[in-house]
Design brief:
Helix content: 10-25%
Distance between the termini: 30 Å
CATH superfamily: Clavaminate synthase-like
Order of helices and strands: EEHEHEEEEEHHEHEEEEHEEEE
Shape: globular
Bound molecules: 2-oxoglutaric acid, fe (ii) ion
CATH class: Alpha Beta
Length: 273
Amino acid sequence: MKPMALHCGIEIGDVALASCSDAQLQAIKQAIYERGVAVFRDQDFTPRDHIAFAKRWDGIDVNAYFPLDPAFPEIALVKKAPDQRTNIGGAWHTDHSYDPVPAMGSILVARELPPTGGDTLFAHMGAAYDALSDDLKARIEGLEAFHTADHVYSQGGVYAGTDQAGELRGQDVTTGAVHPVVIRHPQTGRKLLYVNAAFTLHFVGQSREESLPLLMELTSAALAADNQCRLEWEAGTVAIWDNRTTWHNAMNDYHGHAREMHRITLTGETLAA
Ligand SMILES: O=C(O)CCC(=O)C(=O)O
Ligand SMILES: [Fe+2]
């Protein structure tokens, strides 16, 4: 196992995900809970392997918005064609925080990559929380926040006016959930900052306008370089991330080239302070 950066990410070698033992899977889970994202290279991982491996976790959450693989409806497609300008996930976020029981994480498999670019950045929310000033920690103590995806995926939302609109589903879905601003990781107990600029609209008891300054302050503190790692995808790369421990951001720097990833989202649990 090799750390990808100071706090975030780990590369795990010498394991074939498709046929790993229960003991290996347990060690992989623990590494992901702690480091936020694990990267596996040179994997021989068919869509059937992807689904079978995901079923060894606590279940599959099918994303309400992404296009699904027609042959394997458990698999969501994260793709951008050479003539598209907008990508999916091209801003800092954590997946599914708008659900009352947010997804634990995702297993993302590289299927088609651009010649350069298309990296994914991750940021570690345990390291982010630890590095907050005592003053900021005191200001967020006991706060809760409201999350939704309606402004992102609905008819008048962020993607509606883009060239991804045609493929996205779920324009009529409505979402909303309240979570503590600081959660405890369900498995490790570590304190994690759990707000994100994409889906967290406001603190409970405050308007959007009242909330924005603190949200922005937390976002910029969380994105300190020390908290981040960068994943450069290669053919055969599989990444598994923990949505509670990390945020991620898909770079959109390969216009004119195709990129296609297969994603299975893993079921999570209720989050508590
Ligand atoms: O394409 C990527 O690297 C990540 C996209 C994303 O945000 C996701 O799959 O949740
Ligand atoms: Fe995402």
